[in-house]
Amino acid sequence: MASTTVSTDIPSTITTEQMLTALHNHELMIKTLCPGLISYEFESGDKESEATYSVTDKKPIGQTTFKLTLTNVPDGVDSLVNANPPVGILVIAGKWRVNGGKLVEDVEIEGNFMMKKMAKSNVEKTHPQQHSLLIEQVAKA
Hints:
- Residues 4-139 form the DUF7053 domain.
- By secondary structure, the chain is α+β, with helices and mostly antiparallel strands.
- It has 3 helices and 7 strands; from the N terminus they run E-H-H-E-E-E-E-E-E-H.
- The protein has a 7-stranded antiparallel sheet with strand order 1-7-6-5-4-3-2.
């Protein structure tokens, strides 16, 4: 398993409650997590607590479809990506939390050696931007 943490300061003009509302908004989370979003479809669960979606996203290597489960928790949201790319199964579990004026995301990645290495590098490169986009959306609201 590979692990990494992404942490972003939340501007003092944004309250913890505003940030949590954004994290609990599954549509906003999907659009933030998938900058190349082509489509998504609700599959099962409850959009107010835990729900699974089928997401189709455009990646540098082409289009990919994966399962995304979002689980609202009191201090944030848990995200679980189950992907089945041609090179093997990939599972990315994220715990997004609002903690001490920061948006902190702890990520664990399961997959074969190459997939873990590639996914970890991708998370470390793209997730700070995702955090910023989410914070921007909250600031606009």
